[in-house]
Amino acid sequence: MSADTAELEKLLVEWVERWIEGESDMAIGARTNLSHTGLLDSMAIVGLISYLEEQAGTEFDFATYDPMKGVSIQGLIKHCVG
Q1: CATH number for the domain harbouring residue 12
Q2: What is the pLDDT of residues 31-67, one digit of tens each?
Q3: Beta-carbon neighbour count of residue 6 at 10 Å?
Q4: Other CB atoms closer than 10 Å to residue 28's CB: what's the count?
């Protein structure tokens, strides 16, 4: 994992923690399934992706992303920045 990826993971974990505002005791990490655990709804995931695009300076390709197995920070970063 590159330093840039590690920093993106840290920033996105912090974003999720702010979003849920202490409403969950679940530990949040880069591999946490954000959708299947109910931590984030679809609108929150779009917000997280928008934040990822800002931080990474790139665009997320929604047309090629398949969230059926769940959405994790690590998966979003891998899809967005490779």
Answers
A1: 1.10.1200.10
A2: 999 999 999 999 999 999 999 999 999 999 999 999 9
A3: 12
A4: 19
Give the structural domain span for 57: 3-81
User: Could you give the CA distance from residue 27 to residue 4 in angstroms, rounded to a whole number?
Assistant: 22
Is the overall model pTM greater than 0.85, yes or no?
yes
Q: Are 39 and 26 in contact (CB under 8 A)?
A: yes
pLDDT at 6: 93
Q: Extract the tokens encoding 72.
A: 């994790």
Q: Which of 29, 37, 26 is nearest to 1 (CA)?
A: 29
What total of structural domains would you count in the chain? 1
